[in-house]
């Protein structure tokens, strides 16, 4: 790993984490990067740092460009520990003249590191500093995705340091978007959006409008995770606009957990019904699929259907995990339904319906409960459930069970 010049006198000096597989509950099957950037001008500025475990990589990469004690300013765009964990040791090493951050950033750093003596310089949207030939303009991005978050924009270079926004959890030896397959980049960015930013979609829309109004020319986007957008910054901005509108397609996601495969059989029949109505279907076992991959598939699914066997008068625990997670991320404008087999009490479907209503998913049908193992009639009910949900997607029609075909 080495420092990489991103533009003249602007360097990537971050770290690649090939091994992380669980990022506070998000499955990072391709690892991630913690991007930090060094700008050499009359003043030398470091934008963000890296996770604590990687502080040695950061210092090593900085040293390939300049001795760390030559850094004048540290700009903290985001205080979450994957970007600030190295700050205490780095600040001791660098002894920066100033640390630029938002007011919330200052509060967050004090409550994380308990160092009120650091040379904080609070900035707000529109404030600018000069590094010499370069101007840095700050844009607060409160709650995208923490209260402290901000962007830093290099005016003359038309380069946006975008913190977590527009990033992906994707470790690679390449630093730029044109060095990797675009579909892969967009898929990882979509997973990132679905799992980190979906809940903040209205704020994303506001921010995109604000950036458009500010008339910022953006030739390059340098996020804090994943490759730098140098060939297609417009592509990821357009994707964020679409995802933040929560646009969906004629796609259904069926998520289930099963005890003795009856609920699984029901799930497959529900899929048959959805397919008969022309929907693209994803069937995902809660036991085999990670919650964050389920969330990624949910990003463009108009229909979300859950199935669970009843276990000890409850839904299966993996479904509770996923539903709690989905509720926090607040998908909007979806339709759905529930199904499940049971042995004697059969509370799962009622409980699933309750979760769906809490999330805000419009129930198309009261759901299908089947005692023990589905027979021919039971399979037909499941197919009809899938068809009813399918029609709700394609025709915007919600039907009661009695009204279904
Ligand atoms: Fe990559 Fe919100 O930290």
Plain-language structure description:
The structure is a single chain. The chain has 405 residues and is α/β, with parallel strands linked by helices. It folds into two domains: 4-244, Metallo-beta-lactamase, Chain A (4-Layer Sandwich), CATH 3.60.15.10; 249-392, Flavodoxin domain (Rossmann fold, 3-Layer(aba) Sandwich). The protein has twelve helices and 24 strands. It has helices spanning 55-63, 81-84, 87-94, 103-113, 182-197, 201-214, 233-244, 262-276, 291-298, 317-329, 348-359, 376-394; strands at residues 4-7, 10-12, 15-17, 22-23, 26-27, 32-34, 37-40, 44-47, 73-75, 98-101, 120-122, 128-130, 135-140, 150-154, 159-161, 220-222, 249-257, 280-285, 301-308, 310-311, 314-315, 335-342, 362-363, 368-371. The strands form six sheets. Strands 1-2-7-8-9-10-11 form a seven-stranded mixed sheet. Strands 17, 18, 19, 22, 23 and 24 form a six-stranded parallel sheet that branches. The longest helix has 19 residues, at 376-394. Mean pLDDT is 96; it is low at 399-405.
Q: What tags apply to this protein structure?
A:
Rossmann fold; Metallo-beta-lactamase, Chain A; 35% helix; alpha/beta; seven-stranded mixed β-sheet; disordered C terminus; six-stranded parallel β-sheet; 2 domains; 12 helices; 405 residues; binds MU-OXO-diiron
CATH architecture of the largest domain: 4-Layer Sandwich
Structural class: alpha/beta
Distinct helical segment count: 12
The CATH superfamily of the largest domain turns out to be: Ribonuclease Z/Hydroxyacylglutathione hydrolase-like
The percent range for helix content is 25-40%
Which cofactors or ions or other ligands sit in this model?
A: MU-OXO-diiron
* Rg over alpha carbons: 24 Å
Give me the count of strands.
24
Name the shape in a single word: elongated
The overall pLDDT, averaged over residues, is 96
Instruction: Report the uncertain regions.
Output: 399-405
**How do the strands of the widest beta sheet line up side by side?**
1-2-7-8-9-10-11
Give the CA-CA distance, first to last residue: 61 Å
Can you summarize the main beta sheet? 7 strands, mixed
Strand content of the residues, in percent?
Answer: 15-25%
Level-1 CATH class name of the largest domain? Alpha Beta
Our count of domains comes out at: 2
């Amino acid at each position: 790993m080495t420092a990489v010049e991103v533009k003249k006198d602007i360097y990537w000096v971050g770290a690649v984490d090939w091994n992380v597989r669980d990022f506070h509950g998000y499955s990072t099957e391709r690892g991630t990067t913690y991007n930090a950037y060094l700008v050499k001008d009359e003043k030398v500025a470091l934008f963000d740092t890296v996770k604590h475990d990687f502080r040695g990589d950061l210092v090593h990469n900085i040293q390939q460009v300049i001795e760390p004690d030559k850094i004048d300013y540290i700009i903290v765009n985001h205080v979450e520990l994957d970007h600030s964990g190295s700050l205490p040791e780095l600040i001791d090493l660098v002894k920066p003249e100033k640390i630029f951050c938002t007011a919330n950033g200052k509060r967050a750093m004090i409550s994380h590191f308990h160092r009120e003596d650091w040379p904080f310089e609070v900035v707000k949207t529109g404030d600018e500093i000069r590094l010499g030939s370069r101007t840095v303009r700050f844009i607060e991005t409160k709650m995208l995705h923490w209260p402290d978050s901000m962007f830093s924009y290099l005016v003359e270079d038309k380069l946006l340091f975008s913190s977590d926004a527009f990033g992906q959890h994707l470790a690679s030896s390449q630093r730029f978007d044109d060095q990797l397959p675009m579909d892969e980049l967009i898929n990882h960015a979509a997973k990132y959006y679905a799992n980190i930013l979906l809940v903040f979609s209205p704020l994303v829309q506001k921010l995109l409008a604000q950036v458009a109004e500010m008339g910022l020319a953006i030739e390059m986007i340098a996020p804090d995770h994943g490759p730098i957008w140098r060939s297609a910054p417009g592509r990821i901005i357009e994707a964020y606009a679409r995802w933040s509108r929560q646009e969906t397609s004629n796609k259904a996601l069926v998520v289930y957990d099963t005890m003795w495969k009856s609920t699984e059989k029901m799930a497959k029949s529900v899929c048959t019904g959805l397919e008969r109505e022309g929907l693209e279907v994803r069937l995902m076992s809660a036991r085999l699929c990670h919650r964050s991959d389920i969330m990624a598939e949910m990003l463009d699914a108009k229909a979300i259907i859950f199935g669970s066997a009843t276990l000890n008068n409850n839904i299966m625990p993996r479904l509770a995990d996923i539903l709690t997670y989905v509720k926090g991320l607040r998908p909007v404008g979806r339709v759905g339904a529930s199904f499940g087999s049971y042995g004697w009490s059969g509370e799962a479907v009622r409980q699933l319906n309750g979760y769906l209503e809490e999330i805000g998913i419009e129930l198309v049908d009261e759901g299908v409960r089947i005692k023990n193992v589905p027979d021919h009639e039971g399979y037909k009910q499941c197919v009809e459930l899938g068809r009813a949900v399918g029609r709700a997607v394609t025709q915007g029609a919600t039907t009661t069970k009695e009204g279904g075909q």
